Amino acid sequence: MNLKEQDYDVYTLRGNHEENLIDAHKNYEPKLFQKFVERINKSANLLDEEGKLKTKYIDFVLNLPYFIELEDFWLVHAGFNTNIEDTFSDTLAMLETRRFEYDEEKLKGKKVIHGHQVIYLSEIEIAIKENKNIIPLDNGCVYSKPHKIYDYKQVGNLCCLNMDTKELILQRNIDE
């Protein structure tokens, strides 16, 4: 949000966590919502003095697109449901899907870049090197220590793809 306010060209997408925040804001009792934000999500800075979600965050999240179409790419948080006629109507798939089939006709031959599902770095590198139609970029940047599911040596990076050069840029998690 700060980068956008400073006139940087930053394109943000709606993901499942943003959707969950808005749903909780709409449906939870005020005290439960405050607990949800403060204790469970450790994000008390999102709340005003009365424990309500600050208007600037509500406005920001509600205006996030589910996907962005570029000349050669689709950018989406999770993926697309290509098994239905109108692929771009299933917003739940864009927020939650973990695996999806590429449909060249429905996706206009454009590559899909997505996150949401933690993928080992070697698989991300292969998808880029082999110029796959679906390029995952979620390397689980929060998993930088031993974990019960993921091999933390193969995850823990924030990934960025230069779409012009196909260069993968990595930033190892620096939080301790």
Oligomer: single chain
Shape by Cα distribution: globular
**Looking across the biggest beta sheet, what order are the strands in?**
1-2-3-4
**Which band does the percent of strand residues land in?**
15-25%
Give the uncertain stretches in residue-range form.
none
Per DSSP, the total helix count is: 6
Give me the Rg, rounded.
18 Å
Order of helices and strands: HHHHEEHEHEEEE
Q: Could you characterize the architecture of this molecule?
A:
The chain has 176 residues and is of the alpha/beta class. The chain folds into 2 domains: 10-62, no CATH class; 67-172, no CATH class. It is 28% helix and 16% strand. The protein contains 6 helices and 7 strands; from the N terminus they run ααααββαβαββββ. The chain has helices at 2-5, 16-27, 30-40, 55-62, 91-96, 121-129; strands at residues 67-69, 73-76, 111-114, 134-136, 138-139, 157-162, 167-172. The strands form 2 sheets. The protein has a 4-stranded mixed β-sheet with strand order 1-2-3-4. Strands 5-6-7 form a 3-stranded antiparallel β-sheet, covered by helices on one side. The protein is globular, with a radius of gyration of 18 Å. The protein starts with a helix and ends with a strand. The mean pLDDT is 93.
Explain the layout of strands and helices.
Elements: H1 2-5, H2 16-27, H3 30-40, H4 55-62, E1 67-69, E2 73-76, H5 91-96, E3 111-114, H6 121-129, E4 134-136, E5 138-139, E6 157-162, E7 167-172
Parallel strand pairs: 2-3, 3-4
Antiparallel strand pairs: 1-2, 5-6, 6-7
GO molecular function: phosphatase activity
Organism: Thermoflexibacter ruber
Protein name: Serine/threonine protein phosphatase 1
